[in-house]
Every structure is written in structure tokens, then in C-alpha cells.
Amino acid sequence: MRNQMRPLPRALPALLAVMLAGLCSTLPAMAADNKTWITVGDAAFKHLQKAAPQLVARESKVLRTNESSAKMAATEKVHLVEVDEVQLAALSEAVHKELKRCGGYMFHASEAEGKRALATTAPLATALLSRPSYVIDNQTVVPGVLSQMQASNITTTINDLSSFVNRYYKTTGGSDASNWLKTKWAGMATGRSDISVTQFTHAGYNQKSVILTINGTDNASEVVVVGGHLDSVNSSNTSETGRAPGADDDASGIASMTEALRAMIASGYKPRRTIKFMGYAAEEVGLRGSAAIAQDFKARNVNVVGSMQLDMTNYKGSPSDIWIYTDYTDSLQNDFLAKLVTAYMPGVTVGYSKCGYACSDHASWYNQGYPASFPFETLDGDDNPYIHTANDTYANSGNQAAHALKFAKLAAAYLIELGSDGPGAADRVENFSGSLTSGQTKSFGPFKVGVGSLRADTTGTGDTDLYVRKAAVPTTSTYTCKSDGATSTETCTVNMTANGDVYVLLKGYKASTYNLKVSYKPQ
Ligand code: BES
Ligand code: ZN
Questions:
Q1: Contact 232, 244 (CB under 8 A)
Q2: Which of 65, 124, 177, 325 could share a disulfide with 374, CB 3.0–4.6 Å?
Q3: pLDDT value at position 428?
Q4: Cα 372 to middle of ligand 2, angstroms
């Protein structure tokens, strides 16, 4: 029954409709040219191959899921598969009959896009320029903001969003809901010249994502993201008139974020880092809105130091309150979320679970190498049975928003703690590792720091030498500090009397492997 109501991927009928729409309008003779690309996990791929033995993976990759070993660490293989019309029919069959809980896939418009997705699925790749140290030090601000937050405001937003006939990515309601959210957020920001609201236009469909930005005061290039999806789906009726209130999936997530935003604005809070609230388009048809945004941020080298996804926050189906999903997420940031709950939300309990596949927009950030977290309403399997139907209503979430309020508070605590860091704050630890051939150099930075000291430490094999310099990349003859002993264990500390940039250079004196740790301590 459960699986019939919610086969996996949960929006599969709608996804297949999207994929088939293009194919059905094509003459059979042209079908060979009409290709679709998906990436799937190993278990899903095996099932697909049973149904369509001719199916081959064009490219495969082993992923190390970035989880602490205590919490379900794993490796996983992901395959890029080309699907044509005939295979798609078999695929659909296989998914309905067998795939059930091991599926999920991401849709790609072209082979190149699929390859790009596969190439960037390594967690925490080059995109992460500054890793926060996750020190909790805003006890004078956070409790006051959290105490102002109210479930009744969340109820209002959920009901407003649910009142669109649907918010499907292709319908009028879907576009209208995006415009409505833009207007709502812009209204909340009235009088704040440091806040702006824009819509992100997507290729191929009218629904736009909505992005509210609070500019950081003195560390604006570092960005913290909180997101949810503004679209909804009724998997058995994706027409203009198909009813899809999506009260829990995901009006609840948007409503939780919106209440965090309201309370932060009401308190007059001004972040040092830039904060972005995102309402994503087209999540239910393959994370398409968030994938486009995360790709764009990566392409523009935007330094997103953390992202949090709120998708389904209001159905209380498990004993613990907040469930931290450990797959397609970042273990260090997940640990930080658990610490935030302990520090600021007495009585609220945390559990750990996983989706098993890229089940929401956090995966789009993760796939681009940015730290992502996904705190969820229940243990996977205990979640709201009404999603993707006309019955995903506020009433069927128990006529309350007390559960969603916990996620709103967690989001506010997360945004304020990460948002308040910049030069002069003790929040910077960055780790790098790699290897050098004899004579090879590699530079790191700039590390933007305030008054205090920046310390660089290396360990490793062979013989790595370390150079640190203020304001410019060091050379082996020009540096502020050098450490060039006969091993790869080196240390340099540079004292800063004003805000500024520091650069680090490593040189393989002999062939070596290195772990470089760069940390900053304010005065
Ligand atoms: N909110 C769901 C994801 C979800 C549902 C997570 C239940 C955990 C428990 C999301 O909107 C969704 O439906 N995602 C799709 C996958 C996506 C790639 C289309 C899904 O899970 O099938
Ligand atoms: Zn959802």
C-alpha cells in the first residue's frame, strides 16, 4: 500500500511524463536521436538492466559518501545511462514493479550535462574555499530571535501556498506561486536596502526560482544558503487543474524558512557573510531548479560556505524531532546542526537517517562540491504518506505547525551562527591535501583574515616545504615565513595587525604527499 501510494522515485510518474512528453511527439524514425540521460545508483541500475539488458552505462563513478564512519558511512557507484523510447517503457515497468526503495535518479538534458554531473559528484571538491570551524558563539543574539518565532505565521504561509490549485513547474499555478513568493519576501524586506529579491529564470519551463539575498556587511563574498522547493506535484494528475496543495511537500519548508527570515528581519540582524534564501522551481521533476542554480554558482566561483535544505518539515511521524539525513550531505556541517539543536533548542531531539538517493535539492549543492545538510521531519519511511497527492494538506499534517517551527528555529540558528563570521572571528580552519612531485609548487589562498594570527601546518610523506606571505603569493625567495625542514612536517605563523590577505605556497623538495591545515586565531 505504502509503495503503491509512493513508488520511488516518489515523483516517478510525473518524471516519466516529462521524459515521455518529448519522446511521444517524435516520429519513430527519429526516436534514435531523441535521447535522455539519467544518473542512477548501483542498485537502481541493476534493476534497470534486468528489465532492459541492452542498457549500458556510458560512464560510472565510485563515490565516497562524505559521512562520519559512525553514521552509516558507505561508498556508492553512480552510472550515467542513456535511455531511448523503447528502454524507457521497460524502465518504467521495472521501476514500478521492482525498484521501489533503491531508486531515484537525476535527469540530464544532454550527455555532456550528465557527464558534468558525474564529474562533480565528488564531495567537497574545489568549490569550497573556506570551511567554517562551526564554533557556536552567538549566544547573545540567537535565543532572542528564536523566542520571537511563531507557529501561526508558518500556518499562514503553508495555507497561502496550498491555495494554488497546484504549483507544478509547468502550470499557471506553478508560475503564479513563484511570483507570489517573490512578492511576499520583497514585502518583508521593505526598508532594508541590504536585502534584494530576484527570480532565477530556467531554460525549458516558466516557473522561476526565487532568491532573497541579505548582503553581508564585511565578509560578503562568503555565502550561506537556506532553501526549499516552491513547486508541488500530484503524480497522478499533472494537468493545469490537477490538485496538488503540497502543504508538507514543500510549502512547509518554504514556510519554515520564511518565519526564520521574518524573525531575523524583526530583530534587525545584519549578517557579516551574505545569506541567501532560495525557493527552488522544478524540484519534483528531478531537482532541476536547484541543479541549475548550484551549477551557475559553481561556474561563477561563488564561495558558498554552507547550505541547508528544508523539504518537508511539518509531519511528525517519528519519535525524534529533527532527522539529519547523512547521504548527499556534509558530515561536519551535520555535526554542527546537531550542536545547534543542543545549544539553542532544549528538549528537541535529533535522529539520523538517509534517503538512499538524491531525494531533494541539497543533492544539487552537494554535487557541485558545496557543504549541504538536510534536516527532515521523520525517519525515512515514517514520512508523510499523502505527499504527491491531492491530500497533502495542512489538515493531514495534523493541523499544526509546531513541528515546522523547530526547523524554522534551526534554520535561524544556522544562518545567524554562520552568517556572523568574518575577518576577526575564530571560525576559520581549512584543510587541503594532495601530492607534489620533486620541485613542484602549489599555492593556496587568499585567506582573508583580520587582526590576529594565521597559522599553516603541514604533515605528510616525503619532504614538503612551506612558505607563507602577506598580500601576495609567496615564492621560494619571497615570503613572510618559511619552514623547510627535512620532512613534510612544517609550521608557519604570521601575525596580522590589520585585515588582509595571506597566501600559502607548498613546494615538493622531494616527491611528497601533504596535508595542509590553515587556521586563523583572532587577537
Ligand atoms: N520531498 C521529497 C523527498 C522526500 C520524500 C524525502 C520523502 C524523504 C522522504 C521530494 O520532493 C521528492 O519527491 N523527491 C523525489 C526525487 C526527485 C529527484 C524528483 C523523490 O523522492 O522521488
Ligand atoms: Zn519535496
A1: yes
A2: 325
A3: 64
A4: 16
Residue 388 Cα to ligand 2 midpoint, Å, equals 9
Indicate the top mutation candidate among 284, 285, 287 to test ligand 1's pocket, ranked by most ligand atoms within 8 A of CB: 284
Are 379 and 233 spatial neighbours (Cβ–Cβ below 8 Å)?
no
pLDDT tens-digit series, residues 238-266: 999 999 999 999 999 999 999 999 999 99
**Range from 88-92, 154-158, 434-438, 462-466 carrying the lowest mean pLDDT:** 88-92
Residue nearest ligand 1's atom 10 by CA: 360
Cell numbers for 439, please give them: 620541485
Contact 308, 225 (CB under 8 A): yes
Give, for ligand 1, the residue of 107, 328, 353, 360 to mutate: max count of ligand atoms closer than 8 Å to Cβ.
Answer: 360
Please report whether residue 6 resides in a domain: no
Q: Is the shortest distance between the CB of 231 and ligand 1 below 6 Å?
A: no
Helix (H) or strand (E) holding 114: helix 111-119
pLDDT at 446: 83
Atom of ligand 1 nearest to the CA of 384: 7
Domain harbouring 393, CATH code? 3.40.630.10
Nearest-atom number in ligand 1 for the CA of 287 is 18
> Do 434 and 403 fall within a single domain?
no
pLDDT tens digits, residue range 384-420?
A: 999 999 999 999 999 999 999 999 999 999 999 999 9
pLDDT band at 108 (very low <50, low <70, confident <90, very high): low
Res 165 pLDDT > 50? yes
Residue 325 is given by DSSP the state E
Q: Which of 83, 117, 151 is the last residue of a domain?
A: 117
C-alpha cell at 166: 497546484
The pTM is what? 0.72
Does residue 369 line the site of ligand 1, with CB under 6 A? no
- The catalytic residue positions are 229, 249, 283-284, 311, 388
Structural domain count of the chain:
3
Answer yes or no: do 162 and 61 share one domain: no
Compute the distance between CA of residue 346 and CA of residue 71 in angstroms, rounded to an integer: 23
